């Protein structure tokens, strides 16, 4: 039996797991009706607590999320996990490494795990990650973990999506100095030193603590540093406590936090829509193909061509 995307949206609201999986596939495949389905679900979202988990490869993000999911399940919470994996250069699909590491969660009906491919998207997330979060929120998940692809310091897009950012690091990865640089360090609400049984773990904790103390801007929330050993679940309970503390802090912020998040989501949607509209307009311009030929033969600079084409669209020249 085949289902329309709209019917799948209704299935999500009825807590049907298959509808969730099928709707996510439709979204990822660019089904033209999927946008309307996500819009239909939007009024049923806003209840889930979204936690972004980022950090360098090899820090143990997937294993840690698995332990956190178990902690929340013991509290009777419904958990969603979106694991953003690198894309295959051949098929464009996810490598599914993160999902394999969380395999033991798949037997629990109270946990929904989904991998998705970046498909060339930068920033650590996939293009449709926000829509996946909306689907899991409407599905009734109490907490949603979003794991970034794990590529390095440029993975800051998750801050636009999640309520709380957990930055996971581990000693001995060669990332000690990199981790305390600006960029990814600045987005963490909770700092985790995983694999804390390794040599130099205390040095890593000290470096992160000192880097946080160098922050001159006064903030109401000071990021705590939590030690964990994800393979044995050690420290997972403490991390859940810190997560709930930050969640309480956000609740006190009330509409301020929601307005910031809402504006970010609006701007991201505007950028995507404008880019889609502008590109479609450009390709219909009679000069477009000729400009490509000129750029290919080095007779025209791409920046000059872009300025000319954009000037046509907005009715004036941009400088």
Feature tags:
single chain; 319 residues; alpha/beta; Rossmann fold; 47% helix; 7-stranded parallel beta sheet
Structural domain count: 3
The CATH topology of the largest domain, please? Rossmann fold
Task: Let me know the average pLDDT.
Answer: 83
Question: Gyration radius, to the nearest Å?
Answer: 22 Å
Beta-strand percentage range: 5-15%
Class based on secondary structure composition and strand pairing: alpha/beta
Quaternary class: single chain
CATH class of the largest domain: Alpha Beta
CATH architecture of the largest domain: 3-Layer(aba) Sandwich
Helix content: 40-55%
- Tally of contiguous helical segments: 13
CATH homologous superfamily of the largest domain?
P-loop containing nucleotide triphosphate hydrolases
Secondary-structure element pattern, one letter each: HHHEHEHEHEEHHEHEHHHH
How would you describe the overall organization of this protein?
By secondary structure, the protein is α/β, with parallel strands linked by helices. The protein has three domains: 43 residues, no CATH class; 209 residues, P-loop containing nucleotide triphosphate hydrolases (Rossmann fold, 3-Layer(aba) Sandwich); 50 residues, no CATH class. 47% of the residues lie in helices and 12% in strands. It has 13 helices and seven strands. It has a seven-stranded parallel sheet with strand order 3-2-4-1-5-6-7, sandwiched between helices. Strand 2, helix 5 and strand 3 form a beta-alpha-beta unit. Helix 1 packs parallel to helix 3, helix 2 packs antiparallel against helix 6 and helix 4 packs across helix 10. It is globular and about 65 Å long. About 3% of the residues have low confidence.
């Amino acid at each position: 039996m085949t289902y329309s995307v709209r019917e799948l949206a209704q299935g999500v609201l009825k807590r049907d797991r298959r509808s969730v999986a099928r709707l996510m596939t439709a979204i990822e495949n660019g089904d033209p009706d999927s946008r309307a389905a996500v819009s239909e679900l939007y009024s049923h979202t806003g209840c889930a607590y979204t936690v972004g988990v980022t950090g360098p490869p090899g820090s143990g993000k997937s294993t840690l999320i698995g332990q956190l999911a178990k902690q929340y399940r013991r509290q009777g919470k419904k958990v969603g996990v979106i694991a953003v994996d690198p894309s295959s250069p051949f098929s464009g699909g996810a490598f599914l490494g993160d999902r394999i590491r969380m395999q033991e969660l798949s037997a629990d009906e109270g946990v929904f795990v989904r991998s998705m491919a970046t498909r060339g998207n930068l920033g650590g997330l996939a293009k449709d990650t926000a829509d996946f979060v909306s689907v899991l929120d409407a599905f009734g998940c109490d907490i949603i973990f979003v794991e970034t692809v794990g590529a390095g310091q440029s993975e800051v897009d998750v801050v636009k999506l999640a309520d709380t950012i957990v930055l996971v690091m581990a000693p001995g990865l060669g990332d000690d100095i990199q981790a305390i640089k600006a960029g990814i360090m600045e987005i963490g609400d909770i700092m985790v030193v995983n694999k804390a049984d390794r040599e130099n773990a205390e040095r890593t904790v000290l470096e992160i603590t000192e880097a946080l103390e160098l922050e001159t801007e006064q903030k109401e929330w000071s990021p705590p540093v939590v030690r964990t050993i994800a393979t044995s679940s050690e420290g997972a309970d403490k991390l859940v406590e810190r997560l709930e503390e930050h969640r309480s802090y956000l609740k006190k912020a009330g509409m301020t936090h929601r307005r910031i998040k809402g504006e970010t989501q609006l701007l991201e949607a505007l950028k995507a829509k404008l880019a889609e509209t502008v590109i479609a307009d450009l390709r219909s311009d009679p000069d477009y193909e000729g400009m490509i030929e000129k750029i290919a033969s080095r007779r025209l600079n791409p920046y000059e061509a872009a300025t000319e084409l954009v000037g046509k669209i907005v009715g004036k020249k941009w400088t």
